[in-house]
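Sequence in, structure out. Go.
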Amino acid sequence: MDDDGQTTIDDVLKPTIGKTHRRARDTERTAALLVAPRTGTMRAQILERLRWAGQTHEELAVSKNRRPNSVSPRITELTDGGWIEDSKVRRPTAYSGSPAIVWILTEKGRALLDGAQRTE
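Output:
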């Protein structure tokens, strides 16, 4: 955070240990630890993808050559941080055709990216 208590791009890029279920097995806890170094980069990549158009979990995963289950925790972190939100639009998934949430940047997320671009 900056001196005014505002979130900076560094907050988004900061690696974090992924969330696990309350009764997580050892493999889930290990996976959360192993992905930690990449979490900040993945969040930043998702924000950048959403800068131009809303996307579903599946679309975000495919665009980064990742599995949807690796994108889902980053989506949760970004929604919890107030950087992205549900657009209330739904698109069918390629696999099952089920309706999927289309995620978009919030004003906070857009301001975060705009501020990061100005300081680079």
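Check: The chain has one domain: 9-119. Residues 19 and 105 are 22 Å apart (CA to CA).
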